Every structure is written in C-alpha cells, then in structure tokens.
Amino acid sequence: MHRFGYKGKEFYCEETPITKIAKEVGTPFYLYSIGTFLDHYLKLKEAFKPVNALICFSMKANSNLTVLNALVKNGSGLDIVSGGELFRAKKVGVDPQKIVFASVGKRVEEIEEAIRSKILMFNVESEQELEVINQIAGKLKTTQKVAIRLNPDVAPDTHHYITTGSKENKFGIGMDEAYKLFMQAYRYPHLKLAGVHIHIGSQITDAKPFVKAIKRVLEFIDSVGYKGNPIEYLNIGGGLGIVYSKEKPQTAQEFANVILPLFLSRKDRLKIVLEPGRFISGNSGILVTKVLYEKRAKTKSFLIVDGGMNDLIRPAFYGAYHEILPVVKSAKPRYETADIVGPICESGDFLAKNRKLATVKVGDLLAVLSCGAYGFVMSSNYNSRPRVPEVVVRGKKFFVARKRETREDLIKNERIVTEVL
Ligand code: LLP
After folding, report:
1. What CATH number has the domain spanning 34-281?
2. Each residue of 28-50: pLDDT tens digit?
3. Rounded to the nearest whole angstrom, what is the distance from the C-alpha of residue 277 to the centroid of ligand 1?
C-alpha cells in the first residue's frame, strides 16, 4: 500500500498536500513517502521471518541518504554495486556485515576498500574476478566471503533490457563452470566460497520464474554439498515487480508463501539473502512536474511540462508506463488524449504517449507515479538542466533531503582551458 492519494480534490503524500510542497520548492521535484518505504521493507522482512532472511535494499534503485538511513535504522542491509554506493552506505552507518557487493566490473580499488570495510560478501561474476578478489584479500591478510553468481538460464517475462538470468546476457557464471570453481576452491586460499547468488531480472510480477531458478540452484547447492563443500548462503537477488499500470504483482506474503517451502523443507539451514530495489522503493516516490504549455494541433495534442527525460528517463529508455494524475482535480473534468512531453530537444523526450487524462491547463501540477525506483538515480544534466530536488514526507511534515542543483553546480568541475587557443 503506498501512501499517495486524493483527499477531496487534492493529491497528498501521507498527510501532506503536494501543492504546499510545490509552492515552497518549485517544480519539478521528486517526492518520497518515508512511511511507504518502511511499510514495504517491513512487510518483506515479516514475510521472510521464518528463514530470518537478510534483506539488502538494492540501493541502485534509490540511493538518497535520507531514504537509506530510514531503511538501515529499521534493520535493512544494502546491496551495492560501486565504490560510490559503498561511500553512501557508510555515510548512513549500515552494519558492513549487511552489505553485499554485486557488479560485473568491480575495480581493484573498490574491492580493496570493500574488504577493508569488512563487508559480508561479494557476488562474483567471473573466474578472473575470483582471482582478483583472492589476491587482494591475501594482500590484506584476510579471508573474504564470496558468493558465485549463477546464471540459471531462466528468462522471465519482462523488458529485454532488464532480464539478467538467461544465457544471452553478460551476468553470472554457467552452472558447469561454477561447479568446477567450487570443486577447485582450494585455488583461492584467501576466499571462502560461502554462497551462491542469482538475480534473474527486474519487474517480475509472478513467482514462477523465481521458483524455477531457485529449484535449479538448490540442485546445484546439493551437488556441490555432496562433494563436501557445504554452501551457507543463497542470495535470490531482487526483481519483484510492482504496479505501474494494471499489473497484479505478488505481495510480499504471497511471494514468501511460494518461495519459503523450498527452503523450509531442507535439512541444511541455508541463510537467505534478498536484494529488492523496486519492490521497496518504486511506489514510494513520485515526480511532480508543472504544465508549461498546451499545444493542440488538429491531429495531436501535447502537454509540455517542465520535467524531461533527463529527470525521468524510464519512458524514453524502456518505453515504461508511469501513471500521471493531476495534483488538483477539477470539479468537472473533461478528458483528452495527449502526449506529455518535456522541454528537451529530442523526440524521445516524453513522459507519456497518447495518454487519456483529465484536461489540465498551463500552471497545473501533474504527479508522475511510481518514480521511487530508477528515477532520480538515473537522472542527468542533459541540456544543462540542474538535477531536481528530492523531498521526503513523514506524516504532516516535509523536508528537502537533497537540494535542487544550482547553475554553479553544473560547472563546478570544469575550467575553460585557454591553453588550447
Ligand atoms: N540485484 C541485482 C544483481 C541487480 O542487478 C538488480 C537490478 C537488483 C538486485 C534490484 O532489482 P529490482 O529489485 O529493483 O528489480 N533501470 C531499470 C532496472 C534495472 C535493474 C538493474 N538491476 C528500470 O528502470 O526498470
């Protein structure tokens, strides 16, 4: 349950009217309901209590420090993919033993810093990476836990850019090769091959592909264990889908009901790790934008708004659907179909195409829903547009958690090189 909705004619985030926030911070801006973040996290945590799963929020989906801090203070771990994310994770004081580090391209400095920081585990994506981590752990005179990311060759029904568990893409290690690595664990004296990891894709609304992948992986775990290498951890990744439009995704409890029996029926006490990003954050945030112009041609209508593809790239990049609602409903709405487009000089700069919505006019505010995951984090300065603020709400109060960038911010790392003249 997310905490955005109408009270009378006005759209609210928790107990706070959005018009009030817009007046103070201007538009566009991202708006997060902290209550929703926590609710989603705690529901998942509760559902997976029978196995006492470690939930590592996948901070690539939303790395705002206030959001991370709220989750971490409620017990969440973090799934990181870079030194930059490790830096943010440390800023919010997460217990390093609740950090898992994934990424196909970890750099030596990043690995070293993560080992020094005593993170729980690396999710390893190749044999070479295993060698590199082993070498660095040796240099630092320690033994580092790692999980091997398996490619279970399952292709869930989602956008082809965000499937990751089929043979066709760059992620993970095939089962046969991974088996060999476990059999040759002695080659990595500074590593403990403690776990296996899978992540089959993102925005998966049905548990079936998870079950299929997990069953394959459990067989793998058994075959390795049979040879005397018991595996301690199973990280089932993220990927749980949410509602953008008419999806009917599984709830946390429904997901757990299907997944948990696979573990509870086993004799070994596998430690289960989850890395959800979108499930916790997606419906916890919106983008608020203002109508700048209405353009009604004979064949087509456009609403030109002040939020562009640099602020929210998902529609342009994935053809993603985000519901768009007026922040203040009109008393007698008429409906029209329009493209809702941004100010950027690209035809791909749209938030919605051929969208039927209640007629709005210049100056009206629109709420673009389900933007809490892969929203702000994927934004850019394209067209020299300062990145927008991130505002958080808790009940009746709102706070600017990240300020709007200034013009000066845009050029702060630049100098005019006169030597080239
Ligand atoms: N674990 C791994 C190894 C991942 O690669 C990802 C996401 C996650 C966990 C979290 O997945 P989630 O629970 O959020 O589905 N930018 C795209 C999504 C890219 C997902 C990348 N990996 C989008 O806007 O839809």
Report:
1. 3.20.20.10
2. 999 999 999 999 999 999 999 99
3. 6
